[in-house]
Predict the structure of Acyl-CoA dehydrogenase.
Amino acid sequence: MSIEHREFRASVRKLAQTKIAPHAADVDDKERFPSESWAALCSNDLPGLAHPESLGGSGADLLSQVIAVEEVAASCASSALVMLVNWAGTSTVLSQGSNELKQLVVPGVASGSAGAAWCMTEPRVGSDLSAIATTAVQDGSDWILNGQKRFISNAPWADWYAVLAKTGDKSLGVFIVHKDDDGVSFGAPEKKMGMRGSPTADVVLDGCRLPAVRVVNDPYRGFRYISAELNVSRALIAAQALGIAQGAFDAAVSYTTNRDQFGQPISRFQLLRGMVADMAVKIESARSLLYDAVHLIQDGDPAARAKVAMAKLLCSDNAMSVATDALQLHGGYGYVRDYPVERMMRDAKITQIYEGTNQIQRLLIAKSVYGK
Ligand SMILES: Cc1cc2nc3c(=O)[nH]c(=O)nc-3n(C[C@H](O)[C@H](O)[C@H](O)COP(=O)(O)OP(=O)(O)OC[C@H]3O[C@@H](n4cnc5c(N)ncnc54)[C@H](O)[C@@H]3O)c2cc1C
């Protein structure tokens, strides 16, 4: 890792610890948007990390994006999710959209004045995207969308929604919907176990008419476009999981150093030291695999697909395990909301589920092993 990356990590960590962490418990408790941390991220130009300078972003490389997500997630996983979903929501516009569409969508999102979301899941469609039922039908040069998207992060806060919709028997397109478009409405906020500061709701499309400019490139190749972006979004979710694990680990090290039992700090007990050592190994091995995957993605190496699936799997499984052990190391205090580890344990769970469940990651990895 370069000196620039290390310095960047230190600056995001400082920002997260001073401006984001102090609000994380309240955001979780009240299930409210993390407005203080979003303001802090915006005033430090972080929402534009994934966007090119020509569109108002800072054009940072993927490793920098991963580092930013890790550091923000270590303090508040919900805030990290809001930021990275903005990047996912604009990813197909950036890679495949027309210049007109890019100009319409990206500068606002890069500055943080607008939000983005991406919409694949439906009430009856999760892991199997080929079964998507939302339709997009052409009418003259316009397209008309009908359907319902479920569990959409950043909804209804976001302005722009990248919607995957069926355009033929075996084809899908990506369509960019604005929250104020006619025919767009939102479901009630989901009441979640974790990530309670990240808004999640259904997006309902009822005869939503879009002009041709809102279609991402070829409306029959959307699945291909989304699949190409999944490597990056999975790396970012892996980074989020890794950040949660690091946050929980740091909290556990601090607590066990300061808590005395039997006349000495509990960090002196060998059983606990063994747990902490195992947690450290889980974090460092997950980080190494993730950075390896990031380098393959940055190099355009086809091996990236399986490697990032491994990284998403390991980072999220290890985050769940590390957060659970961090809670255990706090004893009864880990179980109450005065300490952050119970929130981190709840937040960690979803990283094993979204952006392709860990069962789906295992299928992808096995496919690369057998070649079919
Ligand atoms: C908080 C939250 C935020 C989310 N954000 C977004 C978002 O922004 N955009 C979006 O589009 N979606 C989002 N999702 C949806 C998420 O990506 C899906 O929940 C996830 O992909 C799994 O789909 P599903 O829930 O329908 O589960 P299902 O696909 O029904 O799976 C149920 C179980 O069956 C297993 N399973 C399914 N198929 C197989 C198989 N072939 N082999 C073995 N096991 C299998 C799964 O691993 C899982 O354990 C979000 C979900 C949540 C809870």
